[in-house]
What does this fold into?
Amino acid sequence: MSFAPLYAACSMWVFGAVWQTYIGSGMMRPGEALTLGPVHAAHCHKPRPSENIMQEQKMWLRIFLTLTLLFSAAAGIAQERERGVIPNTVYVGADGKFEADPDTVLVTFNISAQNDTLQAANDRAKQAAEQVRDLLRKNGLDPKLAQIGQFVVSPVYDYKNPKRKLVGYRVNSSISIKFKDFAKVGPLTNDLFSLDVTDSQAVSYILEDMDAAKVKAVEDAMRKTRQLAQAVAQSSSHTLGSLSYASVDVSEPGPIIRPMMKASAMAYGAAAPPPAPTEEFTPQKITVNSHVNALYNLQ
It folds into this structure.
């Protein structure tokens, strides 16, 4: 398709607008002869002052420059569009996805200990950490698998006192552990609930082998692009050829987090506590999305 007629029409419109502005400025009246210099035609009116002639020449210079720029831009756009179109090809885009079962569980929780003195708070934190290690061993997990994210010691003040009296020290640390056996989630979280030094538990289901899921999502998108291209080829009496170009974009989902509120074991008395919140439920699938743009040849 040629855009030359469209650009010519736009150019004539701009020329007419500038011409009407020129006439409306009072520098030239309708029916008056066009003056390009100090020499006038025989049927012209009497010569104008030199100032009007200079203004007229400047106006024509502006018109000439405007049209030159317009035609140059039109030619550049036309050439760019011609370069962007590849004959006998079809460009299609499609979304793909792959749903995978999580293969790893991540349990995170905090250890918090407070006492009147810094030494006492530190000793209490050491006891809490040893309790957690024993709890992990009880559930068949190696304490070396657990990782500590932070260890913070902070003073505790009584803000009701105008002098902000120091009343003690608090030791906080965050712990996380990954494992593959989902059956251990329920017993582990129940045991963590029973400790008076742990809080802010969260269970996350993640996919460690994310690369394989990404490949599956891209394969799904590529299959859809070929189906779309095949439909275009058939409707245009062509045969779909080979792939000429493709761009791929994959979005990686974050972990599926399940926050768990701490419940006191004393609240149940002698009765057995209810099952863990995760028991008898299936972990949510992890969805990996992709988008593919593809250019196919037509034969």
